[in-house]
Amino acid sequence: METKMKVEVVLDMKAQHGEFMWPRASFGYQKSNENPNQLVPNLVAAVIVRKIFDMAASSNGVTGIVRYLNERNFPTPIKHAKAQGLNGNFDDGNGSWNSRSMKCILTNRTYTGILVQGKEKWAVEATHEPLVDPIAFDAIQKAFQARAYNVAPQGQPADNILKGKVICGCCGGKMQRKRGTCHADWYFFTCIIRNRLGADRCIRMYVREEDIFNAIYRQLKDYVNKHYITNSAYKQKIQKYARQIADITQCKTTAWINAMEHYEQYVQGKINKDELRAVQDIANQSKEALIQTTESKTAYEKQYDCRLYCQRYSKQWR
C-alpha cells in the first residue's frame, strides 16, 4: 500500500511540473527523443492538425473537414501511429476520418500548449509548442456550443429506438437521424457517408422515420398473422407437452432402473455385454426423448411470447 501511495505522489509531482506521463502523445505530437516526458510537434501530423484548426476557424463544418481529409487521403491518427511503429491495441474502424475523431481533436486543449492530464486534474501551461492559437481555439469551442457545426448532439432524443439500426442500402453505412427543417415535429434518416468520404462513395439515401415505422408495422403484422396462436390453443398445446414430459420422465426412470439392474447382472456374469448395451441404449433414447420434448415446449413458449410482443408493438406503431 505504501508503494502505491509513493507512486501516486511521484506522478502527482511530475504532472504538476508539466511532465508528460502517457504512453502515446496526442495526434500532432510525439515524445522528445532527448526527454520522453516532453512533447514536441510531429512534422507530418502537426501539419494536419494545423490544417484542421485553420479550416474550423474559417467556419468550415466538421463534416466538410472530414470530407476534405478523406478525399485527399490524409492519414488518420491510427494510420499515423502504425506508420510510426507504435504498438497498441488499435481499433482500425473503416480506416477513414469521421466526426468523432474530428471533434476529439478540435476540443483537445493540449494543442494550445497546455498539458492536460488525469481527466483535467492537472493542467499546466506553456509545457510544449502550441499548434493552434488559444484565442482561435476558444472561438471554435464557442462555435461548438452554438451548434454551428454539423455534428450530432451527444444525447439523442430518448425516443430514438432505431439508433444504429437503420442501414444505407447503397453503401452499407449506418444512417443518421435528423429533425425536419425549421424544428419540425418529424424526423428522417440520411446517410452521411457521401459527405464524409466523397460523392463517389454513396448516392446519399434518405428515408422518413414514419416510413420506417410503417414498414416495421407491416412486417410485424405479417409475422403475427402467420404465427398467430390463440390463448386456448396455447393452453391445450402446453398441457399436451406437460403430459408428454410426465410420461417420458416415467419411462426414463424405469429404463434407467432397468439399466442399473442389468449392469449388476453383467458384473455378476449373468448377461453378456451386448445384452447390457441394448438395455443402456433404451435408457439413453428415453433421456434424449425427454430433452427434445422439453426443448420443443420451450421453443413453443418463446414463439407465443414473441407473438404477444409483436402484437403489442405493432399496435403502438399503427
- Low-confidence parts lasting 5 or more residues at pLDDT below 50? 148-158
- Outline, from the CA principal axes? elongated
Oligomer: single chain
| Element order: H for helix, E for strand | HEEHHHHEEHEEHEHHH
- CATH 4th-level superfamily of the largest domain: Putative Large Serine Recombinase, Chain B, Domain 2
Distance between the termini: 62 Å
CATH topology (fold) name of the largest domain: Hect, E3 ligase catalytic domain fold
Task: Average the pLDDT over all residues and give the rounded result.
Answer: 81
Number of domains: 3
CATH C-level label of the largest domain: Alpha Beta
CATH architecture of the largest domain: Alpha-Beta Complex
Main sheet?
A: 3 strands, antiparallel
In terms of DSSP E residues, the strand content is: 5-15%
Percent in helix: 40-55%
Q: Largest beta sheet: what is the strand line-up?
A: 5-6-7
With helices defined by DSSP (H or I, 4 residues minimum), what is the helix count?
10
Structural class designation? mainly alpha
List keywords for this structure.
318 residues; mainly alpha; Hect, E3 ligase catalytic domain fold; 3 domains; three-stranded antiparallel sheet; two-stranded antiparallel ribbon; 7% strand
Describe this entry's structure for a reader.
With 318 residues, this protein is mainly alpha-helical. The protein starts with a helix and ends with a helix. It is elongated and about 95 Å long. The strands form three sheets. The protein has a three-stranded antiparallel β-sheet. A hairpin with a 7-residue loop joins β5 and β6. 53% of the residues lie in helices and 7% in strands. The protein has ten helices and seven strands. It folds into three domains: 144 residues, Hect, E3 ligase catalytic domain fold, CATH 3.90.1750; 60 residues, no CATH class; 90 residues. About 3% of the residues have low confidence.
